[in-house]
Amino acid sequence: MATISIYRNITLRVGRKGWLSGSFSLTGSDEVPGEADAAILYDDADDEISNLLFDQFMEMLRGACENPKPEDEIKIIRYLEKHHILKLIDRLCREIYNTSRRLDLISLLDVAYKWAVSSDDVNLVKLGISLMGMMNVDEREDCRKAIVTLGKHEEFTFYSLYAVSGWDDAEEIMDGYAAHLKGWGKKHAELWREKEW
Description:
Number of strands: 0
Mean pLDDT: 88
Low-confidence stretches: none
Oligomer: single chain
């Protein structure tokens, strides 16, 4: 039996007013949504990932873009189980446009979108949202919709905020999250609106 993607699960559970009910939770998750990320975000410790580990990740990412195979996703999922996505985001953003990496940005955007909407792995969805946020998705309504929709679940709100921060309608999206979310997603949205990031 095929598992349902996180994105599909969220879109099926969004109510008439466009938001998830407070009782909705991701299958198999017993944590408070967004709490593990918040612990890293609000901790001053800066334990950066080593160059070797980061280079390994970039090679996996290149492989997933150039000649995607199911095992590429599995390698990335396992990597993200050991090395938190928040430890990678800033450096990854700088490296995306590093010409020596020679990443095909069109392929990368397609892969990022696929991970965001098709995966049932929380970390792979976070990576997909983050990667889409590093690229221009003005012409890609499918990407924009996925980013905003996933942000309605507090496990993904921070990543959505990161992705939409440069959009013309970013303030409206942030206001929506701040008004309708109750936990860590609301906190992230309020801090983002106050320019504390």
